[in-house]
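Quarterly update, task 2.4: iron/sulfur cluster-bound model.
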Amino acid sequence: MPGIYLHIPYCRQACHYCDFHFSTNLKNKTAMVQAIVHELELRKDYFNSKEVNTIYFGGGTPSLLSESELGFLLENIHRLFPIASQAEITIECNPEDLSKKKINSLNTLHFNRLSIGIQTFNDGILKYTNRIHTGAEACQAVLDAQEKGFENITLDLMYALPKGTMETLQQDLDTLVSLNVPHLSAYCFTLEEKTVFGTWAKQKKLDKHGDDWEQKNYLQVQKHLAQHGYEQYEISNFARNGRYSRHNSSYWLGEHYLGIGPGAHSYNGTERQWNMRNNALYIQKLEKLTLAYESELLGQKEQLNELLLVQLRTKWGLNLDNIKSRFGFDFMDARKKEIHKLLKSNLLQLENNILYLTEKGKLLADAITVDLML
Ligand code: SF4
């Protein structure tokens, strides 16, 4: 079932590790919201009237939009696309935006899932990474959202952050688990060149932990969450009682999605499109009712590599029978040598003609994927 992603490219301030597309200059926010609606209008036939199952407001920081801006966007999505009655409607929020009043607004607007960016509860690390909120404020935001009836909440954790220790990680995990939400995402810190941390690293002012440290952190996250009933259904995603992210699962299972807003990507099975990552130019183009994307037709090889990239990381694995029926192509035959080597090294496992990463393989997921690509 298809999904719509809206990219809201604004943040109140820039976190030192983040290279997502966003601006801290909110001057053109209203024009941006209008431009996004123009793009929705121009692309309303993307799914050929198929019902949309998930809507995801990401960013950036969509929670900094006002109630009327969010309402305007949702109203137009409902006007232009057939939306399933039980659609999952998620909004990414930063803790500093989640006042009780804001939570009430999100409820009134019928968002039914909150994705709250926590990263860590440690005030020293939050400050060092230039996050706005404190650990206590993040906890309070989650408790307030739960009190106001939001049960479907996911929290983001970042591990192996500079200045982080095994003790701070354990404290983060204990606090996360105590908040009793159905879904958690845990991402390893990555040093990105075009960020403040990237500059500090070049100037030798920042010590990045090594691969061994990252693995140790990852194993600690995995173990602790498993002990508390969270199933790792994708390398970075954990859920209790099957409460998977429907939106992200649809990416991983190769469903079609429409990405609206600067920098957003779309995929219709055979073609990928990506919008320009420039807010001013995006607004200018859409004011003239011109779409602002580039695109690439995906041949069979690219489509297969795409599936491999997303599916191998999930608990559902890479189904070789499905590949054969969809592409008429024997993947096992094409990558026989590599697959046997990975099976022998206990990095992959083959069951009912489905390839899965083993626990050992999960530590080397990226390298294994590259090995298997066509
Ligand atoms: S981590 Fe989130 S809040 Fe921080 S700069 Fe990136 S998008 Fe904005």
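Highlight for this quarter: Residues 11, 14-15, 18, 20, 22, 59-61, 94, 117 surround iron/sulfur cluster (CB under 6 Å).
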